[in-house]
Amino acid sequence: MASVVAAGVHVSVLARSAVLVPGSGSGSLNASNWAKGASADPSAYFAFTVTPVSGCTLQRMTLALDVRASSTGPSAVDVATSADGFQTRFGAFATGSPTTVTLPTASSSGPLEVRVYGYGAASTLGTLRIQNAMTLSGDVH
Fold it and tell me: How many CB atoms sit inside 10 A of residue 14's CB?
């Protein structure tokens, strides 16, 4: 659950997709069963939804997150949104250090789902986790 939410938006709980296997981890969301190939499995992701209140739109958003993997977990991460049906991937980056991704600047007046995909795992038993803090920043108009 979001710990701080700005006025004008509602944020859902950060969750795993159904194909991921939950893992334990203090202060993190952790899972295994990530794609081993060079691209993400569209059914394996962490996700949350941000919804502006009626009459408002979301604009100019960035997502700062700390994503770590086990030694056999995903080596790469992509972020996508429901703005285009998760077709465009933003900010492909390596796991292991905090990263900030710029999301599309198109205005959204309805719910916007944000997904974090891991891939390039050496084993489906390898884990990927979002730890410490994850911050979605942007403008609400």
Answer: 17
